[in-house]
Design a protein that fits this description.
Length: about 140
């Protein structure tokens, strides 16, 4: 059986805000759509499923996120996921320049949960809250392969 990673889906409260954040970090919008209908209800398991979506990829196309903003049913706002909670945890990106990426995030009102850490002289990394409270990890390799 073959398998290939497709994307990670993330529900957001404001699709345009989330697109702006991730494209400013360097992701590229691959497509946008409005989805609804019996096929969407069946696939997602949610009656009346109606959402606006956008698929964004890294410039090399090796990773993708699908952002979706529910039009119906009304989205349920939950508390932000904590790093130690079970379930969907975070989305992580390797960046060429962590300080530059943090500057971009700051322009969107997104700041590290604490500070930047160094892992075994291999990576500088931090977690921050992105749009809609999405937990985002940004990491810069200190040693190039």
């Amino acid at each position: 059986m073959g398998i290939r990673f497709e994307n990670v889906g993330i529900a957001v409260s404001d699709l345009e805000e989330a697109i702006a954040f991730f494209t400013d970090l360097g992701l590229v919008v691959q497509g946008r759509a409005e989805i609804e209908g019996e096929w969407a209800d069946t696939a997602v398991g949610l009656d009346g499923n109606h959402a606006n979506i956008a698929v964004l990829t890294t410039p090399g196309g090796d990773g993708a996120i699908e952002l979706f903003e529910y039009l119906h049913p009304e989205a349920i706002n939950t508390g932000p996921t904590l790093p130690h909670e079970i379930g969907m945890h975070r989305v992580a990106f390797q960046v060429d320049d962590l300080d530059e990426a943090l500057g971009v995030a700051a322009r969107h009102g997104c700041f590290p949960l604490r500070s930047v850490a160094t892992y075994e002289d291999q990576y500088r990394l931090t977690y921050l809250r992105g749009p809609s409270g999405i937990l985002v990890m940004l990491a810069q390799a200190l040693v190039r392969a």
